[in-house]
Amino acid sequence: MGQSGGPTAVINQSLAGVVEGLQTGLVASGKVKKIFGMRHGVRGIAKDGGDLVDLSHLPAATIEAVAQTPSAALGSTRDKPDDAYCAQILEGCRQNEIRYFFYIGGNDSADTCRIVSEKAAEAGYEMRCFHVPKTIDNDLKENDHTPGFASAARFVTLAHMGDALDNASLGGIKINVVMGRNAGFLTAAASLARRARETDKDAAKRPAPHLVYVPEVPFVMDHFLHDVDSVYTKLGRCQVAVSEGIRDANGEEIGPQLMRSGEVDAHGNVQLSGSGALGDGLADAVKKALTPAGGKAPRVRADTFGYLQRCWPVTSPVDAREARGVGRHAAALAAEGDTGASITIERTSNVPGEYRSAFGRAELSAVARYARHMPEDFSDNGNNISASFYDYCMPLVGDLPEFGTL
Amino acid sequence: MGQSGGPTAVINQSLAGVVEGLQTGLVASGKVKKIFGMRHGVRGIAKDGGDLVDLSHLPAATIEAVAQTPSAALGSTRDKPDDAYCAQILEGCRQNEIRYFFYIGGNDSADTCRIVSEKAAEAGYEMRCFHVPKTIDNDLKENDHTPGFASAARFVTLAHMGDALDNASLGGIKINVVMGRNAGFLTAAASLARRARETDKDAAKRPAPHLVYVPEVPFVMDHFLHDVDSVYTKLGRCQVAVSEGIRDANGEEIGPQLMRSGEVDAHGNVQLSGSGALGDGLADAVKKALTPAGGKAPRVRADTFGYLQRCWPVTSPVDAREARGVGRHAAALAAEGDTGASITIERTSNVPGEYRSAFGRAELSAVARYARHMPEDFSDNGNNISASFYDYCMPLVGDLPEFGTL
């Protein structure tokens, strides 16, 4: 088994789930003798002689401690194996007599499972590959939601709850940049900070965040500046949540455009991810647009939440439980003789207070490579998130603190 | 009473403490008839006709709910009143027959209390001013530590704990910029993420964060790049914590120098606070220095923690308790006939597991204006934090999660 891509706060829950599921399933029945972990994903079996760690005899206390630990305990990788790379993976499996392959990751990891499965079949080597879902972006097809998302969403919600009060206490315009190159789910979670299902069409009458921009809705700079101006003029403050991947009607990302334009004093570097460039560029644009001729510039600040979103050590309880569950389900399917699948999460009850989910399976090819976007009805009015997203996301993030006011 | 300066996660605990202390003290004894809150600090009594809110009859449940809420419930201000402004404050107090003045804030707030006290004495108006300490920077004189610091320190510690594992899983160099223009206490809290009292002189043998730079120790770019290179070469990864206010041997801040130099692709804007400029500039410098001629650049990322540090809704229990306590103590001193003071925190036991503190008083003039810096023995080796800081800070931040490894 291995872990791949950007880590999450609960990716080790899935690792623990696979190990537990194997211990009570294929290992207990004698069909599997050893459990190996690949260090740094498929690199651990395909590169430089491999780097496998024996997980066969992990004590329950160690499994539980690792499960509670954020980020990938086996290490991760950004490698996206092609055919040749997958042939090396298969060769590594043959050498170690590996017949089951569990890969915890996003759609690239599902694709790796798919290619390795096909290569094994071509070579007549019996091998069963299972993709265990993981991504804070929440962008896997065939899933209601994905492990890792809810904990990151909880961070984004809590951050906006506290930051809204900070913004209210000193006034001005605050822009928060949230992870998400293509899917806006995580940025949309900022809207849960309102603790209100329905919000006003007039952004100034909504609880903060007043404005939310996601990659699925084309970003128009003039509309954005108008929206911010309108809220700030009425309230003396404005909190904005923005996806790092917002783009214009042509699909071109806003961040690089701000940097190139020279109209704002923003970064010149090309590396956008993991930099404060988009937030600072938007802040500069707002300051420029909202400063009256000869007048005083409004207070404008930007925070880019960065990597804390995916590795904050306090998780959503639902997320932790489901991440464990998809790992166990993968091992259970393997024990039942499934020849390879991607594990899925289905929501079976969304009645308030009675949220329930179930694990299922999809073909690897149905999940591999393709990314899911936010459904259209989750966006609202070009600068807001709908009540249907609230209903979707609130059961996932866990209890939120209650605030008092004077 | 009012709240001033950058809010903290526990500044409302102090507000609640003052209200409770008055209710059971001066109000119960009949010496005070009404409790007013100033909206947005002294602006609420001195500007535009004032904006006072009656807090005389707050139910206990409301007080408790507000106490648990981050940021300044009355609103805050960045105004630093001079003599003329303080005369307006005094005039507002006279008009409302106010005889006690409680101001929750940093050293500027203590100075406001001092000036208002002096103006009242000059005018023969009996008036008692109490400064209630608050600052995440931990830079007030006469105090072991200040309310607000420990909760922010807890955030910084947890963030580095999770981020260290994120950095380990994918490798590369990670730079985290922490608040603190002049005092390094908050950045030093990153070192608690190691969960180890003693650390190696060799940065590569320390648990992450491997390197910590504070404003009190002159920052030498060549040494920094050498430090990072040395750790990265040995481990394939390096986690760095940096204060936003790091400066060179001449006392000049590094951030603006990076922006002006043109050697790195950083921001051109002057606004450093609340921007990602320093982190991105340092990341660019590291990338440039560590990329071999014709070779591949290392993975370098920077996060600027920003405002989340001071408004994260989950606090340190010690901090919440002490912030409440300094508010109550101020009201108690007033009831005892104290003619005006700044409340202080003294540590009375630092035995592990038996941390205790007591509240005291200092003259307003002893706290006003002057900022405290980190004691020299908290820094170590130019790029590290000492075991004595560990002993100092660990009792304040509360329980930390235990992590597992494979």
UniProtKB/TrEMBL annotation, chains A, B:
Domain Phosphofructokinase residues, every copy: 3-330
InterPro entries associated with the record: PFKA, Phosphofructokinase_dom, PKF_sf, PPi-PFK
Cofactor(s) this protein requires: Mg(2+)
Binding sites annotated in the UniProt record for Mg(2+): 107
Source species, domain of life: Bacteria
Alphabetized UniProt keyword annotations: Cytoplasm, Glycolysis, Kinase, Magnesium, Metal-binding, Transferase
Enzyme nomenclature, EC number: 2.7.1.90
Residue numbers annotated as active site: 137
MF term (GO), any: diphosphate-fructose-6-phosphate 1-phosphotransferase activity
Cell compartment(s), UniProt: Cytoplasm
Binding site residues for substrate: 135-137, 179-181, 244, 307-310
Subunit structure: Homodimer.
PANTHER family linked: ATP-DEPENDENT 6-PHOSPHOFRUCTOKINASE 1 (PTHR45770)
HAMAP family assigned: Phosphofructokinase_II_B2
Name by which UniProt lists this protein: Pyrophosphate--fructose 6-phosphate 1-phosphotransferase
Organism: Methyloceanibacter methanicus
Lineage: Bacteria, Pseudomonadati, Pseudomonadota, Alphaproteobacteria, Hyphomicrobiales
